[in-house]
Description:
The structure holds two protein chains of two kinds. By secondary structure, chain A is mostly beta strands. Chain A has strands at 3-5, 10-14, 19-21, 24-26, 31-38, 44-50, 56-58, 64-68, 73-78, 87-95, 104-105, 109-114. In chain A, a hairpin with a 5-residue loop joins strand 5 and strand 6. Chain A is globular and about 45 Å long. Chain A starts with a strand and ends with a strand. The relative contact order of chain A is 0.34. By secondary structure, chain B is mainly beta. Chain B is built from no helices and eleven strands. The chains are: A mainly beta, B mainly beta. Chain A binds chain B through residues 32, 34, 36, 42-46, 49, 51, 90, 92, 94-97, 100-108, and chain B through 31, 33, 35, 41-43, 45, 48, 55-56, 91, 93, 95, 97-106.
Amino acid sequence: AQSVSQHNHHVILSEAASLELGCNYSYGGTVNLFWYVQYPGQHLQLLLKYFSGDPLVKGIKGFEAEFIKSKFSFNLRKPSVHWSDAAEYFCAVGPASGGSYIPTFGRGTSLIVHP
Amino acid sequence: NAGVMQNPRHLVRRRGQEARLRCSPMKGHSHVYWYRQLPEEGLKFMVYLQKENIIDESGMPKERFSAEFPKEGPSILRIQQVVRGDSAAYFCASSHDSYGYTFGSGTRLTVV
């Protein structure tokens, strides 16, 4: 069974500060990795995803994530946060093969941005 | 492509009533997943369906909850005899394979 751990439940930053949200997973096979964002009262939107190739993935809105296979990690980063980035961020892991593609989500990290 | 459509967006039910949540997957997607999101918690997997088949329902409560994805029409998540603890946001996602999941806007169920 796969599991996803997001280290911080809440992160509080000042605007323009750099952001890094941790995500570690456990799974015995090949995985696809995702970061989703959920703005208050809205549905989940895909920020970025990793399937294969370059482990540094660029997403929308200036976000990027790095897949470090040896550490089973897929941390999300942004050099400079904006107040509009305040949201809930979810890391997800899905099996890359095997016929059952159920993604598992981390508990989420709530980002608060102070002006 | 209209994306994943969920309705209703908000649903209020009295204790003991039935709740029916609908999810129409993206065109071409044959995999549907239902998740429940409780306050201060992440998304908890409930059930994974393909057309006319329940593939994995390991996250579904043993009683009162059921799901279907008929040959024609949307996927339905049914909750019978709702209780206050069923109040949550229910999200549906669909995919073609393992390369991306598109989420619907969710149904926020409130049990009064």
